[in-house]
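Revision sheet: structure tokens.
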Amino acid sequence: MSVKRIVKTRQNKIELNIGNLTLLEGKNSENGHKGNSSAGCKDHAIKAEMSYRGSSSKITRIIAADYKESFGENEISSRGSQIAKLLDMHSRY
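Predicted:
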């Protein structure tokens, strides 16, 4: 299955869209949980400031830089398409 197909298949389930991918490591976690669950259901601006900006993962820092005010359905779908294009360019799949 191609990355483009995955993005299109999941458009009705925005939380599963590759554009919603954020990588967080334990050192950014206030509550001791590792990964994305550590950010919880906080407002995007709070997550960006507390977790995303300080991430050691470039793909996560970009969310904080490029999506300062909001990161809703439109932004997630757009970012998913951008990630799919990059994966197509840099992989042989």
